[in-house]
Amino acid sequence: MKREIRIGKRAIGSRHPVFVVAELSGNHKGDIKRALKIIDVAAEAGADAVKLQTYTPDTMTINSRGPLFVVKTNPAWKGKTLYELYKEAHTPWSWHKRLFAHAKKRGLICFSTPFDETAVDFLETLKAPIYKVASFEIVDIPLLKRIGRTKKPVILSRGMASREEIARAVRTLRKSGTKDIVLLHCVSAYPAKPKDMNLKTIPDLKRRFHVEIGLSDHTLGNDVAITAVALGATVVEKHVTLKRSEGGPDAAFSLEPRELKALVKSIRTAEAALGKPTYARNPDEKQNIVFRRSLFVVQDVKRGERFTKKNLRSIRPGYGLAPRFYDVVLGKRATRNIARGTPLSWTLIRK
Fold first, then answer.
1. N or C: which end of the chain has fewer CB within 10 A?
2. Do 269 and 328 reside in the same domain of the chain?
3. CA distance 102 to 13
4. Would you say residue 164 lies in a domain?
């Protein structure tokens, strides 16, 4: 596995800051000004990228009120037909160019999740730098082949996929031309519960599939995402909205601006704390080493007198010989008169 994945001037990998993706999804509520504002929020929070979703209701499903096409699960979507849901949630393709440009202006990488081959063709005209594969589309082999042929990096959400389905998707992308893959652990529930996240899957995914790993997080709050970083995630994706109370298809499990800012800050703190394996003392530790124990004379000792358990102790501070020499020194004689409170050194001990 390569050490990093390059996306323009940015890189994904264990040697680089966690790549934080703000997911716009349908939280624009059909208003391009709201979409632009969410991009501003992502930039102000310190995210690295903003992600769109590229589909139309007709590329996702058919317009039918048949029972098979009515949502029966998620409370926010229950009772709607799939067509109605996607009509409400989709990001008009006519917006994409402006959203891409605005994100670039704000210093963000903009990319998208295509849901069919025509969406890939369209995103190629916008020079999308990377592609996302949604967890529900991980089994869409023709779509994966089309994305793979772009030879661009791919972020792949595993969602409900089994090991075999993940392996097939990764294999398909690689055979089709994709070299760089990030595999995101993801629980396809909206919202997802922390107890169902099984974040220890993250390092297991890296071990099994030899790819960069991350998290697409649908839980409420930031604890799960920060824990994922501690487990090695190099990408974190979160849905973002302006205000949950204003509603929207994904509002219930999306972060508000202050929460996204707090998440980015916590991720940066976590990755700084992770650092690298080391046993060297840092500068703050070096100045505190004097508070270690060391060997001190605790009673006045005359020249030639032996060091005993009564006149020699291991105490703080750490200016004397290390405590490991205690047994070596006991029974030895003093080279001169030594006052109580003197740190023991080799010059005070007869050879």
1. C
2. no
3. 26
4. yes
